[in-house]
Each structure stands twice: as C-alpha cells, then as structure tokens.
Amino acid sequence: MSSYLVAMTIVPLFCARFIRRKHPAPDLDGAAHGIAVGAGSDADSDTDSDADTDTDVGVEHARPKSAHDIFNSAFHKLLFAYDSILSIVLRKPVVIVLSSLAIFTASLLIYPHLGVSFFPRTDAGQFVINLKAPSGTNLLVTEKELAKVEKIVREVVAPEDYGMMVTNIGVVPDFSAIYTSNSAPNTAFLQVSLTDGHKVGSYEYMDRVRGRLRREMPHMSAYFQSGGFVDAVLNFGMPAPIDVQVSGPSLELAHGTATELAAQMRGLPGVKDILIPQDIDSPALRIDFDRLRADQLGLNTKELITNLITALSSNQTIAPTYWTDPKSNNDYFLTVQYPESQVKTFDDLRAIPLHAPGNPRRTSLDAVSNLKMVQAPTEVAHYALRKVVDTYVSLASEDLGHTAKQIEDIVAATKLPKGVRVDMRGMVAGMRASFLSFGMGPGLALVLLYLILVAQFRSFVDPLLILLAVPMGLVGVLVMLYTTGTTINVQSLMGIAMMVGIVVSNSILIVEFARRMREDGMPVREAVATAGRVRLRPILMTSLATIIGLLPMAIKLGTGSEAYAPLARAIIGGMSMSLVMTVFIVPAAYLMVYRNREAI
Q: What pTM was computed for the model?
C-alpha cells in the first residue's frame, strides 16, 4: 500500500521536478531491426544545448561507452532476438499455448519427488543427546557411561568449534525434577554448545557422534535433537518432530505396541533415531500397607507415606518449611532426612520408626506393611485421561511429510490390540494444519485477483490471459526446488505467493498495452507484437532486480539465511521461468483469442 501511494504521488512529483530533458520517443520499428532506440529521432531537433545531443550516434563514438551504453547495446540485441522469436511464435499461437500448458502439466510430476517440511532446518549452534542405559542401571554406573560419551564428544567436535558441555544424570524427587527430561537413574541428557562461527554444522557433528556411539557403545540408547528454540516451538515442546503416541487400557499393552511399531520404523530410510522414554521394567520396591494394623496404631495412609518419604528423601515436596536469614532476608528451604548411610539394606528400611501425631508409641515400617521387589514404570504419561507411551522419531533430513506417510502406512498395516489407539503428534500435526489453511489462502487470493481484473479490464477473457503467467511461474518453482534439494515448506509457499503477484503484474503490462494499441486502431497481431517489444524492458527490469536482490539469500549467505533460502529460491525459480515463458505465451494466447476480431 505504501509503495502504491508513493508511485501515485511522490514519483510523479519528482519526475516533474527533476526530469527536464526531452526524451526521444522509442522507434519501435527501428528497435525491431536492431537500431538503437531514440538514435537520430527527436533528440536531433533539440537545440537547447550541445549536451542534449549526447544521444546522437555520432557523439557516442567520441566518448567512452558507459555502463548505460553497454546495457542498452546488449538490450537492443536481446530485443532484436526476442522480436524474431516472437514473430515465429505468433504464426502458430495455438501450438505455443498448448505446448506451454503441456510443459506445466508435465512439471507436476516433479511434485511427488519434493520433500515436505514445516519450516527449513536451521543450525542452532548446539545439540542435545538423550541417553538411556539398560533398565535398572545404577546411578554411578550411568555416570561412568556418560563420562565415556563426553570423551567421544570432545574427540569428535573440533577444539575451535567446542564451546561448552553440560551433562544431567538421573532424577531426584524434588522441584528440580520439573526441569529435566530424565525419569530414572539410567537416563541422562548431554547438551553440547558450539562456538559462534563454527566451521562444521551441528547436524554434521550429530551424525559423527551418533556413528561413534553406535559402534563403541551399542548398549546405550541415544536420541539426538538440535535443542534449538525454533524446533522446540515447532514441536510444541516435544523433543521430536514426530511423536507416535500409543494409548490403551493398560500401560503394558500400550508399551508393547509402541515397541513393535518402533522396531518397524527403525528400518525407514528417513529415520535417524527412535526413543521410547518410558520403561515399564525398572526395578522398584512395592510397599503394601496393612490398613487395619496401622489404624490400630493410630496411623493412616497419609501419615505412613509422609514418614517414609521424609526419612528417605526429605519432606521438601511434602511440607516445605522456610528459614529466613536475618542478615540477608533470603528464604531457605529447611528440610530433614536420614543420612544416606543409615538405610542401605532391606532390614534397615523395614526398621524405619513410625509414629502418629500426638502418640508417643513408635512402631517400625515392617509392622504395618509388606515390602517386595517388583518391576514398575519409570514414568506414567497421560493424554486426555488415557495412559500413553511416546515414541520419539528423529528425521534424517527436512523431509517430514514422506516419513510421516510411511509411519502412517506402518500403523495402518499393524493389527492393534483391542482398545489400543495410535496418534501422531508433534510438528507433523502443526504442519498439516498450516498447509491446509495456507492452501486456501492463495486459492482465494487468485479468485479475488481475477474478479478485480475483470472489473478493471471489463472482460472475463483478459484476466484469464493474464493469469497464464502463474502456471509458467509454478513450473520454475518446481524445477528450482527439485534441483536445489529444497523442501516445500511455509517459506517456499510464501515465496510462491509473492512470485504470483510479481509475474501477474508483468503479464498485465503486455495485455494492457495490447488493448491500448487495439483501441488506437492497430490490428491484433501488430498490437501484441508491439506490446511485447515495448513492455520487455520494464518486465526485464522488474524481474532482474528481484532475482539479483534475492540471490544472496538463495545461496545462504549470512547467519540464519538457511531459514529464508526456500522463499528466495521459489521466487527466483518462478520469476526466471515466467520471464522466459510469459513474454511469449501471453502474446500468443492474446492473438489466439482476438485474431478474428477487429480493433476496438
């Protein structure tokens, strides 16, 4: 809107103020035969000053050629070649139009071979490794295993690229459990930060570390993720772009189904890592309280649990108490628990004293409970009140759509137990919802554009001729995305929307000028030929300015440019193809429709 206002107000004002010389009218017939436009025309009659005759052919030989002269010389050669080709095209306009539409139809065969993603993959300058040792591994053993992983990371990451590494092992039953993805002593995560300007990308380092871990530590389950903020938002907080979520009437049934699906998904070519964070076979201690015996001693279930948790892991999460430092006025948690050396065996645990509030008599834990070893889940997740087991899937590339389709095929071919349901969540759900809404937008925009053009041209046919530039632009987009290995994502779709607006404006230049020539009484064939020659320069200027301006973005120059490269590539591909095709197909289509009509 701002550009339109400037073009309609400020630009005419500046033209009237600064453009004082009389510009020669272009000699269209001379241009068609390679003669410099304006040479020897009205400029010869302008006698205001000797400088005004600089455009004369004789004067041009007396001074060095400027960049403007070189461009004009090249343009006139191009104009001569264009006019020669256009004259051939206008002899068989039906063949040209049908051939162009056939090229567009054939280009649609490229679409199934393009990857589909939500947003382009960007280098976050860090990566996170989620690790899981065999179920039941002691915390000290897990710590030793993580030390080996840290050594591998330091050997793989170049010293000049290495920034910092933080390792978090296990989980404790306090507030810090909220901020960790760990669920048991055998789980951990390792976050590696790279330096600014690192020479090797984070995804390349992830592949190298992954290869070392699979060769040297096959007993460790490793799941890699970028750890970037953008990915976290796009994944809706999940650590994976695809989360195959299995829910069922029991956790065991859901976990068994998830394990079966994970085994099949590991064989897909687009899958790098798979992680099921929940374990259901972790060693645990089950305490069955004798409610009748406890009631006789004045104890209830809440008091039994409070006594037990306070003794083993403090009462901070049960009943926090604060102590305020009188000097600094800082608040501190005040908690109490047994020394770690006091409870080492089952007998020590059974001998833990219990007492009811206000009751001086004490009893031991084994007097009111039965202790036994069992296998239990490390964590229990719920979705919509149903117990679920997550299967996180990490991708080998940006191509999210094809991998998601393959996973859906695996789920569809798997016979699920009764009551078990499989849902796909994560980035893939957001991508499909966004693509659905995004697809409706350009379609509605084309309809509104057509209606506006109908009102402006007072014709139902001319807008259709103008919109012929859109299929030609889409041919260029598909070819460019395929040759550069770029996926179809939100950025490339935005590029398509922008490309449509630009190529349609180029097509309008030709159709509008041809109408004007016909209104002046010029025959249709001559009118479209003239329109193509006269409008070639502004079309070239608009297209080349846009293409050259987007080249640095398309070749990923600058930090973060990989996020916008698909947008630039879509525009460059669409405009390049449309530039070549539109200047021929639109005149041919115009002649095909109006060749049997007289001038208007």
A: 0.75
